[in-house]
Amino acid sequence: MQSFDLIVIGAGSGLNVSSAAAEMGMKIAVVEKGPMGGTCLNRGCIPSKIIIHSADVAEIIQKSKLFGINAKINSVDFAKITSRASNLVDKEAKEIEEAINKDKNTTLFKVEAKFIGERTLKIGKEIIKGNKVIIAAGTRPSVPPIEGLKDVNYITSDEALRLKKQPKIMTILGGGYIAAELAHFYGALGTKINIVQRAKFLIPNEDEEVSRKFTEIFKKKYNVLTEFNATKVSKKGNKFIVIAKSKNKNKKLISDELLVATGRIPNTDLLDVKKTNVKTNEKGFIKTNEYLETTAKNIWALGDIVGKFLFKHSANLEAEYVYSNAILNKKTKIDYNAMPHAIFTLPQIAGVGLREQDLKQKKIDYATGKYDFIKSGMGLALQDNEGFVKIFAGRKTKKILGCHILGTDASTLIHEVIVAMKNNLPVDAIANAVHVHPALSEVVQRAVNGIEW
Description:
- This protein is of the alpha/beta class.
- Helices cover 32% and strands 25% of the residues.
- It has 14 helices and 21 strands.
- It has helices at residues 14-23, 38-43, 45-62, 78-102, 157-160, 177-188, 208-221, 268-271, 312-327, 356-361, 377-382, 410-422, 428-431, 442-449; strands at 2-9, 28-31, 106-109, 113-117, 120-123, 126-135, 139-141, 169-173, 192-197, 223-226, 229-236, 239-245, 250-255, 257-260, 264-266, 299-301, 340-343, 349-353, 366-372, 388-394, 400-406.
- The strands form 5 sheets. Strands 1, 2, 3, 4, 5, 6 and 16 form a 7-stranded mixed sheet that branches.
- Strand 8 (169-173), helix 6 and strand 9 form a beta-alpha-beta unit.
- Helix 3 (45-62) crosses helix 6 (177-188).
- The longest helix has 25 residues, at 78-102.
- The N and C termini lie far apart (66 Å).
């Protein structure tokens, strides 16, 4: 049995800790069966945003007549689009692996691991033990128990990012951010899209007004069935057949590709974490305290497997605190304040802080400001008729409680609000800052100026 100062399970944000610990001279084991870089690099945010940019370009071309330009898409080299993304991320993953293998203080185990005892793992035929362990093993696509689904060759987001042939018709089960982004990618490039969503709106975890507006926009582009459940899946020849049911209707959807995008589940079961006394919640995510300590001594957890926020930027933040707490022994409570997110659809969506439904549920005394993109100079230039900024502030404190944006460059515009919130500044900080005219950022300032106190 080999012993290590630190074992890190998962080669995503966990590498932020392992590499820093290795520089301090600690003896490190990194356990990762798949490619280096984790979900974000290999199966998530990086390849998806590379291919989605092609979809954004396609949408601009399709709308070119609005701006006096008669352009059209002659053809789509679909294999080139997905291969470009795959080649870029595979190259980076390989470079990360080469760097790990060159590090004299780090041993990489590229095999599946399972806990068999206290901070003890069986990896292949070997057994290793760590004085300290960090679990950063992420999540995987969740597959619902739909009749016939396991008998057909459906795809998840993992495969959807690497298809070489563009489907003519795709049915997507699920209506969250992964389903929405992939619907945008395939749909903008010409695939006919069916979406089966159980909830009343798409992206239901957003501010309700954003979810409602986004659903309205997508229903104009695609065949979106909200408040429908997929009850049966089968295949006839090369065609997938999905039976979807609502309270009053049954729908039969036929497509040449079936994408299951119904959420993510943690990999705690594959690791058998209970063998090392790590407790999980009812959904299988690891329970951690404010120091990201698990229920087992000298074991910490970070990233998607913790289930606080399933974002790369939140995992990187957690890695900073785990490094401080586990390696430097400086006990620091993690600060999740002003944790933002974005959805890279068209229109883009971004949010930070509380949603309006949260404020109402918590009975917080708040004031709202809202501004439409089209009322600003740049919004008019871009012809963004649907975008808006919605911001909430405490009626007495004037502190920002939340902000939600739907529209062009929402993922960038939200950062002005993030900085103000993280530094506990009142909305006046945004209102009093001079904004470039007619930059799109004026919509954020004007939303603030429009708060009805």
